[in-house]
Design a protein that fits this description.
The protein is mainly beta.
């Protein structure tokens, strides 16, 4: 049963005698029990909607838009292809704790403000949560599961704190950071996603620290001139642990890579710094493809000019803010810097045997495939600088998020 504060009920009835037109809540309101709005509901600025523990809110159409405050705990928001919850500039007084949201096009859309979103479950939505317009939302200890496109989408220079969450079996991406730099992104766990985390486009420079990536087809994708710091993460049992693609010069430090697939893939003029990591698995530690200083000098600018008109993340409008000068590689010498890593027991034994000028079996580069062909022209494949290397593991004793 829907329960309103008396004044709010009177206002709603006066303003919206036909419930199909929607409801406007301009004073403090309480929902408890079974709540079934006939259409969209808007919480006006200055008003607070409180949803009591145990409430089940079912939307047949529309969704919930909050310009004031929303306080909900241990409640369920559900429906079939409903619009979801929109938090518009809500301050830290908006608190959702242990709430489940399912069946929405976008479970929660946050634009601006700094709401607190703690211990949520976002399951079976099109997009679990979207954070936009410089929001400083706190998203912690939540589960993003089986959302059709992406669990969490961060964009528009958003500055949220994203800590201690789980991203499991989402349709395309567990989380996607697009032209944003979250204030914190740590202690999260990614399992069973096609791509666990994507960090894309120039201006995305977050610190991705202390997270666990396991059993994803691809653990982390860094793309289109993004420059994150990827530090202290554990990547185990993924098809590919980390893929650096299209001018993505990440700092990769203090991580542990394990599994039988490729630990780090580098392609198309990406020149990261890879140092202080442990490559503990029996798979390919480092794999270079379509990676050439010569290609970058000859074709890089033209290829990026063609890409300017390409559609953005999830089919968004073209973006042209990034200049060629900002995306051009500097100091090209035909090598990728991967000095100062531990390459596993077998790899270290091999390096002792072949020396710093050898061709390690666990690194695929220009020593193995001197050239590749692109656009009908042959280009030399870059090589990896792996010496000096570390003789002992570097990440022993680190605390990782629990599986």
């Amino acid at each position: 049963m829907k329960t309103f504060a008396p004044l709010a009920l009177l206002v709603a009835l006066l303003l919206f005698p036909n419930p199909g037109r929607g409801e406007s809540l301009s004073s403090d309101t309480v929902w408890e029990g079974k709540v079934t709005p006939a259409g969209s509901v808007r919480v006006e600025s200055g008003a607070t909607l409180t949803v009591r523990a145990g409430a089940v809110v079912t939307f047949a159409a529309g969704g919930l838009e909050v310009a004031g405050r929303l306080v909900a705990e241990k409640a369920l928001f559900t429906g079939k292809d409903w619009q979801g919850i929109v938090l518009k500039g809500c301050d830290e007084g908006t608190l959702l704790r242990e709430v489940r949201i399912e069946g929405a096009r976008t479970g929660i859309l946050v634009t601006g403000g700094a709401p607190r979103l703690l211990g949520l479950t976002l399951a079976g939505n099109g997009t679990g949560m979207e954070l936009r317009q410089k929001t400083a939302a706190e998203v912690a200890d939540s589960l993003f599961s089986r959302n059709g496109r992406v669990g969490l989408f961060v964009k528009d220079d958003a500055l949220p704190r994203i800590d201690g969450n789980r991203f499991e079996h989402n349709g395309k991406f567990g989380a996607y950071i697009h032209r944003s730099t979250p204030a914190s992104f740590r202690g999260n766990r990614f399992r069973g996603n096609p791509t666990g985390l994507a960090v894309s486009n120039f201006g995305s420079d977050p610190r991705i620290e202390g997270n666990l990536f396991e059993e994803n087809e691809l653990g982390i994708l860094v793309d289109r001139a993004a420059r994150p710091v990827i530090s202290g993460n554990r990547l185990e049992g993924n098809g590919t642990g980390l893929r650096l693609y299209r001018r993505s010069d990440a700092q990769v430090e203090g991580n542990r890579f394990g599994g039988t697939g490729v630990a780090v893939s580098v392609a198309y003029s990406s020149y990261p710094r890879i140092a202080g990591n442990d490559f503990a698995g029996p798979g390919q530690a480092l794999f270079l493809e379509f990676q050439s200083a010569r290609w970058e000098a000859d074709r890089g600018a033209a290829a990026r000019e063609e890409e300017v008109a390409a559609r953005g993340a999830f089919g968004g409008a073209p973006r042209t803010q990034v200049t060629e000068e900002e995306r051009r590689a500097s100091g090209l010498d035909g090598t990728v810097d991967a000095r100062g890593n531990w390459w596993g027991e077998a790899g270290t034994a091999e390096l002792r045997r072949i020396g710093p000028r050898g061709n390690p079996s666990f690194i695929h580069d220009g020593r193995d495939a001197p050239t590749f062909t692109e656009g009908g022209k042959s280009y030399p494949l870059d090589t990896v600088r792996f010496a000096p290397w570390r003789e002992t593991p570097l990440t022993v004793g680190k605390a990782w998020p629990a599986p």
